[in-house]
Amino acid sequence: MQITDVEALILRQPVLDASVADGSQDALIIRVHTDEGLTGVGEVDSLPSVVKAIVDAPPSHSIASGLAALLVGEDPLHVRRLWDRMFRGSLYFGRRGAAIHAISGVDIALWDLAGKALGQPVSTLLGGARRRRVRAYASTLMPERPEEVRRVVAAHCEAGFTAVKLGWGPLGRSARLDADLVAAARREAGDGVELMVDIGKGWSHAPDAVERARRMAEHRPLWIEEPFMPDQYERYAALAAAVEVPLAAGEEETTVYDFERLIDSGGVQIVQPDVTRAGGISEVMRIAALAGRRGRRLVPHAWSTGVIKAATLQVLAATEDAEWFEYCVQSTPLNERLVSERFPLRDGCVEIPDRPGIGVELDDAVLADCLVRAGS
Ligand code: MG
What we know:
Oligomer: single chain
CATH architecture of the largest domain: Alpha-Beta Barrel
CATH topology of the largest domain: TIM Barrel
Radius of gyration: 20 Å
Number of strands: 13
Bound molecules: magnesium ion
Number of helices: 14
Order of helices and strands: EEEHHHHHEHEHEHEHEHEHEHEHEEH
Number of domains: 2
């Protein structure tokens, strides 16, 4: 079997609000086609037009090439070899950031293709599923006011979630508001529901953050996520040493090298690689192994369509430990309807699909509706 084409499709809902932190309003879908008619599907949660350029770019020289040109004619079952080929072939403009995002989407599509070719779920190719279901937390944006927080938490508990993460939005604006918003969430959730708080890089100095985290800790969040900008490892380390509530971070990091630094310099307890950004399924398995060696918890970041959900669930099936599945609950058409699988909740858990590949098919009608055509 040979790869004949690698497509990068930009999808976008009709009206998009670029001022909010919601990347499920658009999507970049990868399709890897073969001479045997099989197609693998992947996704990249990044800036779609940049990723498309990285896939489509014609080669300049041996370590500066678009990804599609590196893959056409290759055997798609050689997933790890092709990962290395893409990493090396994009070295001058790559190594981290958007090039690794693009490699991630192609890697997911290659795993999907391999699973379909062999008639097995990706988890089997990763060594075997260790579980059939995983507990999910509803992941959504922090509303502006405490009364809205209570309404949002109530709605997700009503929908069957036993854990809710609220993030970004007004968090970080003031110490008082941070505490009031989390207090409102806990009042509504009671003791039976777990809460997580994602600061969305809203805090700036460690001493102030220590104070804010201690006030928040009174309301028993399971973790505090991304208090600082990603490279501020010293601040992460200072905060982690000063408070008992675990810190989580990593959604902007790419490759196992970044995660090694985040763990060793930042003292972060919970690492959150995004399978569509950190280097795909291949690299997240390496990051999971690193986290295991360092005694850290792995909770992958996942915020976009059903493709990222499906790829993340295959990883969570195969890793030694899997505590949580981040379930993006945004009511955007791409999040809710791009794939036919709906990932229903049962007892607060999501069943992991065991169909071949990542186990989902794109909905052609939604794809056609949202596809951004060249020149538009
Ligand atoms: Mg986050």
